[in-house]
Amino acid sequence: MMHGLAAGILDGSIQYASDAAGGMTQGLLLYYMSVSENKPEEMSFALSYLRHLRDQLKRIMIQNWPCAAASYYLGDIPFAKVMEEVNERVVTMPPIDPAMLELGRRIRLCDALFHDGVKSRAQGDEARCLLRMRECAALENPIVEQEWYLARYEIEKAGSQRSTS
Fold this sequence. Notes:
Layout: H1 2-11, H2 24-36, H3 40-57, H4 67-73, H5 79-87, H6 98-122, H7 126-138, H8 146-164
């Protein structure tokens, strides 16, 4: 299903993306699914999709979240740069309620931790992956982020695998 969403964005049959970055979220989640299921062809497709969007959006929207996470997967930036993007305050007019700014930061932090965990898994470091998943799930629930729920799932799955071994 996620492959179909990404393919639809690429071929134009899907006009609406789920984020302000033109559909990066679909590619990021497809990469997570591919890594977790050990499907190299899908991993390659997901990275190609992210690369395509990055190249298309460089001029106009690269500052939009979650472009930093995609750039991290693609090796364009280190994790420290992703964290700079997490902590960057967005300048808006009129002023935004500070609670909303904190929610936006928590959403970005949730995504950053989750995707650093996924990248660690892709590199064979499952311990670091689960550490990041725990850090992600320990955040106050941002309500709208699939990554927060997926991190909880990963922790529960790891716990049940240990108890059955």
